[in-house]
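[09:14] KT: can someone run the structure on this one? pasting the chain below
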Amino acid sequence: MTLNKAEKAEKSTYALEFSVDKETFEKAVSKVYRKQVGSINIPGFRKGKAPRSVIERMYGKGVFYEDAANDLLPDAYEAALAESGIKPVGRAEFDIISLDENGIVFSAKVPVKPDVTIEGYKGIEAAKVVEPVTDAEIDNELKIVRERNSRETEITDAPAAMGNSVKIDFEGFVDGVAFEGGKGTDYNLKLGSGSFIPGFEEQIAGHTIGEEFDVNVTFPEEYHAAELAGKPAVFKVTVKAITQIDLPELDDDFAKDVSEFDTFAEYRADIEAKILKRHEGAAESALEETVIKALCEKLGGEEIPEAMYEAEVENQLRDYDNRLRMQGLDLNTYFKYTGMTLDTLREQFRPQAESFVKTRLALEKIAELESLSFTDEDVEAEYARLAEAYGMDADAIKGMIPAESVAEDLKVKAAMELVKSNVAAPAAEKKATKPRAKKAKTTKAAEEVAETSEENKAE
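[09:31] RB: done, structure tokens below
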């Protein structure tokens, strides 16, 4: 391969011209002949035995040229990229300038990263607002764990009460006629759950096992079955079983049963710390979203090639497909159940892909302007972190991700941290001092969360 030309063209593209010499081309043509001769019929010769010269006389001297050119193009293009130092960001557009027995001359329009500009990345107006942990949030977490560890006790000597679960047989009638879907046997219903028509569950309360009685209700005006909407109904109901949920007491024994803590106070404090950590993460994500939007708006310079957006859409499609496969699905199955198509999914990913590409270009430019760099030790540490995160061997990670890519990712992360550390309070906040939220009670666990919050930002 000989590189004839490599020069910058318009719209973030490079124009390459490279050639393949006569000897290399001849070898490729011979290879194609040997591969195809078995399927060529020439009168006077057994199938697959016709000499190349005879085939060329019958079909033309260049009969094998195009296939030989296609075989040679990938390696020739890679060699041209390596020699020119060009790093494509998408598929190139190829053409053949000349093709004869003396060799081939190829041309390629190669999409490359645009030369972008970014200004005003320090002082972006944004605020990290961490919502305080409320008692209601803690109580809700406790309620979930408490219900998960509850026990059911059968009631035989008392009527059903709201909050109990009942097993019932029922059949509904409108104007004395049973209607479709209005019958159930051994149906489990929690009274107060709101699962049935308004007023139904309340009329079950007060009845005992074995009782048969009527429940009178009226279907809502906007009921999903139009033929029943707004009509009065009578349900014949029989109570067959009643159970109550026994919730454990919120005490030290409960804490020992459901956690590693010895006291309920410690357990509650740990829940508070975990909720606070989630709030920290949500606040960090909101801050980053604001920063990303601002960086995309401030990005200038050359036009971003369409190939970069398309490549990122494909990346996101592959990632989505992988996540579906982890759940036992794939894209084809997903399309079958949702009625979507590959094109509509691409359209959905497009805005996110555009934002990612613009943000990445902006952060790479900031890293360049700020002269951000990382040592080989930093790269090795990142390999170790990735290996731990994905449960893989570090050498396996190295085989998948080049050190250059790891270093670039570190620069991008560092650039984002630099931008976030230099945000300015929004103008509205500068004019008014907001009352400080009441500080939540902290424990050792909560203090550890606070100490590691800066580390969590990078995550």
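[09:33] KT: thanks! The chain has 16 helices and eleven strands.
[09:34] RB: yep, looked fine to me
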